[in-house]
Amino acid sequence: MTDFLQFSFDKFDEDGNDELSFMEFEKIFANFIATSGSTMIKVFDKNGNGLLDKAEIVQVRLSVCLNL
Ligand SMILES: [Ca+2]
Ligand SMILES: [Ca+2]
Questions:
Q1: 4-61 tens-digit pLDDT
Q2: Is pLDDT at 68 greater than 70 in this prediction?
Q3: 1: pLDDT strictly greater than 60
Q4: Vertex 23, ends 17 and 46: CA angle to 5°?
Q5: What is the CA(47)–ligand 2 centre distance, in A?
Q6: What's the confidence (pLDDT) of residue 49?
Q7: CA-CA distances (angstroms) from residue 45 to 19, 25, 49, 54, 61?
Q8: CA distance readout (Å), 62 to 13, 65, 66, 68
Q9: Which entry of 4, 31, 58, 63 is 20 to 30 Å from 42 by CA?
Q10: d(Cα 1, Cα 57) in Å, to the nearest integer?
């Protein structure tokens, strides 16, 4: 695990149990989206309404997982 990942893991593992719960993962994901901002929305906003709906978020998740 790289230092960056270790840092991120410790940062987001809020209860310190060395496991990421779904809620903790959600925060990582939200942070990732916030950092990437409108660029991510443009890429994944399939219907072009400027918002990511549930179905579009699922696609983002799949893409992120596949790229890891
Ligand atoms: Ca945890
Ligand atoms: Ca949309």
A1: 667 677 888 889 999 889 988 888 878 777 776 667 677 888 899 988 899 988 887 8
A2: no
A3: no
A4: 140
A5: 5
A6: 92
A7: 31, 21, 7, 11, 13
A8: 22, 5, 6, 10
A9: 4
A10: 27
Rounded Cα–Cα distance for residues 50 and 59 (Å): 15
State the ligand closest to the CA atom of 19. Answer: 1
CA of 17 to the centre of ligand 2 (A): 35
Do 8 and 23 form a contact (C-beta atoms < 8 A)? no
Enter the tokens of residue 67. 């790229």
Which pLDDT score, from 0 to 100, does residue 10 have? Answer: 83
CA of residue 11 relative to chain centroid, distance: 14
